[in-house]
Specification:
With 301 residues, the chain is of the alpha/beta class. Helix content is 37%, strand content 18%. Helix 3 links the parallel strand 3 and strand 4. The longest helix has 21 residues.
Length: 301
């Protein structure tokens, strides 16, 4: 009986490990632990069906802490806030009130509408919090966190202030965390073609090339738009990422260093694109230290 029980236990553990490795989003969301927070779903911030957001409210949180905005990835043509419940739970576990917005996707829209949608969602946060009776300091302080395409959107928001200004967002961006973001965006990449048609090309100075190794001169490239006024940044990439190459974070870090923007750059040698964000989940934290590294960064702001 003991041997049979051990065999069953071993099989269950192997099944969990298999799911974590090959179906991380399913595991992270279906086995997520949510006792430490309340999820408030499907709050509208504009008129489209995709213009909704969720709040994750820790059981006990300090209104003095910034609010975390997590922007999901998906190559600008897929992804949904419901797929990232594990991320909302992770940041609320750290003690941060967290918002995860949906935004419109290609082919419904093209650049820059995905980014403008997120800016409008951020602009709606003070009114949303007031309506829910949740306390916060004014102006509202936020930290932008994004994965993949979401990291690109977050980087665009902190590198080009006009997005939040045009949305009339009354917020102060305290920090930026980019997970596997395409910051030197190649418009001819098969995952990008069509989504950024009509983007304005720009001349890239020799100084920019020397300081950031810029190769793609256009207005959808955070490296080109980066300024010395950007908030403190944390850039994390997986060394085995074949979806968005680690060179993106390396080049962006060099550009921010040249601008004297405080920036920490971490590469996890054995981590791929999916497992980088999947390790935010309680059940995926054996994959890499992204949870602890982000928590440490947030505490430094």
């Amino acid at each position: 009986m003991l041997v049979e029980g051990l065999v069953v236990l071993a099989m269950l553990l192997l099944t969990v490990v298999f799911l974590v490795v090959f179906k991380p989003l399913w595991v992270m969301n279906h086995l997520a632990l949510g006792r430490h927070c309340q999820r408030i779903k499907d709050l509208s911030y504009a008129d489209d069906d995709r213009h909704t957001l969720d709040f994750y409210v820790p059981t006990a949180y300090s209104e003095d802490k910034p609010l975390v905005v997590f922007i999901h990835g998906g190559g600008w043509d897929e992804g949904h806030k419901d797929d990232y419940k594990f991320a909302g739970l992770a940041f609320s576990e750290m003690g941060y009130l967290t918002a995860i917005p949906n935004y419109r996707l290609y082919p419904q829209v093209q650049f820059p509408h995905f980014i403008e949608d997120v800016a409008v969602a951020i602009a709606s946060l003070p009114a949303q919090l007031t309506e829910l009776g949740l306390k916060f300091n004014r102006p509202l302080s936020v930290i932008l966190v994004g994965h993949s395409a979401g990291a690109h959107s977050a980087a665009m928001l902190v590198s080009k202030a006009e997005y939040l200004l045009q949305a009339q967002a009354q917020v102060e961006v305290k920090g930026f965390v980019g997970l596997a973001g395409p910051y030197d965006l190649p418009l001819d990449d098969e995952l990008v073609v069509g989504k950024f048609d009509g983007v304005a090309l720009r001349d890239v100075s020799e100084q920019q090339i020397d300081s950031g190794h810029v190769h793609n001169g256009h207005d959808a490239n955070p490296i080109n738009l980066a300024t010395a006024n950007m908030p403190k940044a944390l850039l994390i990439h997986g060394g085995k990422d074949i979806t968005v190459g680690p060179y993106h974070s390396e080049r962006f870090q060099r550009r921010l260093k040249h601008l004297n923007v405080p920036c920490q750059h971490l590469v996890y040698a054995g981590t791929n694109h999916r497992h980088l964000v999947g390790a935010l989940s309680f059940f995926g934290r054996f994959l890499n230290p992204v949870y602890k590294d982000i928590e440490r960064f947030l505490k430094s702001l």
